[in-house]
Amino acid sequence: MVSKTDYYELLGVNESSTNDEIKSAFRKQALIWHPDKNADRLEEAHEKFKAIHEAYSVLSDPHEKAWYDSHKSEILTGSKGEDMDLWSYFSPTVFPGGFTDSPDGFYTVYDELFETLNKKENADVKEKGKIVTRPRFGKSENTFDNLKLFYNYWGNFTTNRTFSWADAYNPSEAPNRKVRRLIEVENTKERNKQRKAYNDVIITLVDYIKKRDPRWIKFTEEARLEKIKKEEQDEIIRKAEEQKQKEYREEYRKQQAERYAKEYKEKMMKKGENESNDEEEEIKHSDEESDEELLWCDICRKSFVNQGQLNNHNNSKKHKQAVQKLVKEKYLQKKKQNNKTQQEEEQKKNKKTQQEEEKKKNTKKVSEPVNLQESEDSDGNDKHLLNFVKSKKNRQREDSDEFELPEPIKKLEPKVEKQEKPIEEEKKIGKAKQKREKKKAQANILTCRVCKSEFDTKNKLFTHLKESGHEKAF
């Protein structure tokens, strides 16, 4: 029989071992001491196998492992000064009969233990008339209600015992009154210390038993399943109620619509065609009554029975998101329409400007002759050169780059041909476009450096330079 053996020694690990190392050591020892592999020493293997399982159960739980580490010496060596050893009950070796009602079984052993603790508690308070009947652990057939009472009481246990055996000094041996008082103070401290330790041991023992009690495990599992079942049933009832309410609202709307239609038809038959205005007022009144009874949200396409529900819906996050989405869609639609209209106007404007420019190109302009010079060539022939200067406002290219000079004349009057007034004035254009057009026009003007005459083609400029002799200046 394996009793009071260090759990770390059973598994072959130390206190600093990790959970993975403890788990690996447990598997290794379980394979070694499994009863099926030790037929020649079956009883020893069975006890050892149970002890290994118990060691792993304690060391794999961080809370139980910490408590075991801090009280290991008491568990292994037993009580110190108490009249009862509680540390031995932290091991399955205390009930070799297993989880049965036999004299050495789980239920009998722990039931007798707590009955003994109850008697000791009442023994110290018997003179004061404060005897308490505490819940019993019971046997395997104990009810769940009684079991809850037991664990609730003993899980929050506080002892009433005096713990006089824990005194460190004997007050009767004090030489004087002052020393006696000091001894009483020290003894009180020691009693309180032992009382607290005693309470902690019992509470921890109750928690240890509770985790291994087959009855409690069964009852809690049944309670968990019952809770899940109840939640599922509540969900079914809730959905059925929602469906019922939905059908009721649909039926209510249908009845309202039929009633209003029937009333409208009856009033139409009574009043006739001459009272159509009154009928429209009645229909409007009926619609208002319907709106009072059934409120409607056009954005979310939902109906509500009263104003409170509608107000809650309007303040909901889902409704606000729907409103923002609708506003954004309308804004984008309006912006797209404005861009389209602006593009169409720009196209019309460009098309009209292009047409006017083509008309101007087809209209022949006549320039004013500003200067007339006479010169003689080397052969003695007289030629007259005319310098034509065009107005900057109406300057345009002519269809041909060259023209024929007239015959020599004695006197030439400047002739100005009136320009036809355009039918439509050119539309105003932007400042940036005006600057571009101005630069383009200036780039196309050619000027003689001698007489400052301007020409719109290179051929005309070269003809002028050759005939006037101004090319020699270059």
From TrEMBL:
Query: What range(s) does the J domain occupy?
Result: 6-72
Residue stretches of biased makeup (Basic and acidic residues): 342-360, 407-429
CDD domains per UniProt: DnaJ
Q: Cellular component GO terms, alphabetically?
A: cytoplasm
What are this entry's molecular-function GO terms? nucleic acid binding; zinc ion binding
User: Which residue ranges are recorded for the region named Disordered?
Assistant: 267-289, 308-442
Query: Taxonomy-wise, where does this protein's organism fall, top ranks first?
Result: Eukaryota, Sar, Alveolata, Ciliophora, Postciliodesmatophora
What's the protein called, per UniProt? Answer: J domain-containing protein
Mark out the compositionally biased spans (Basic residues).
430-441
Pfam families on file: DnaJ, zf-met, ZUO1-like_ZHD
Q: Which organism is it from?
A: Stentor coeruleus
